Structure formats: C-alpha cells, structure tokens
Hints:
With 110 residues, this protein is mainly beta. Helix content is 10%, strand content 49%. It has 2 helices and 8 strands. The chain is globular.
Amino acid sequence: MPRRTNQLKWTANLLKLGETIDPATDRVVMGYPLDREIKYRNLGVTSTDKIFAERDVNEVVRKIEVRLDRAIEDNQKDYRIEIRGKKYNIERIYTKEDERLMELNLSYAG
C-alpha cells in the first residue's frame, strides 16, 4: 500500500447551535458559538454541482473535505462552518467510509 500524505492543510472553525450570552443585554440568546477547529481540503465547485443544487436560496458555493465525524453527519442542521470570517451552512454530506473522509457541500449562511 502506498504511503498517503495528509492533504487536510487548511483550518476552519466548526460552529454548533447553542446558547450564548449577549454582552449588551446579559440575556441568553441562541447562536452558533465555536465548537472546535477542524482541518479541511478545498475541493472546488463544478458547474454540475451548481445545477444539481440549484434552488432559490441555497446555492452550493464551496465544497470541502474533512475527516469523518459522526456528530456532524447525524446533526448537520446544528452545525455551521466558518472559513476566513465567512459562515457557511452544510447543505449535503457525502461520506467515504473506506477513506474515513466526508465531503461537505456548503452554502452561504443568512
């Protein structure tokens, strides 16, 4: 078996839906606080992906590859990804069980 190198070289923030305290009012509000950092590889979006996911609101703008994580796979609506200050919703997840990787299709978070 050939030696595989780690291709997940970029870092993103994984945000999980939860309660945060608003500093201005000291009240509890629902938000997306930082859960942890994850490593990813940018895959790019093809025109086929854009046509396949063509909807009024949620257009796939980015595809990334991350390590297999069952928590994200089971509750994808509770998570968001933040890359260089921009927040993205997870639209679709493709898992590669044998390689222990997941492909995440991302759209802009509103």
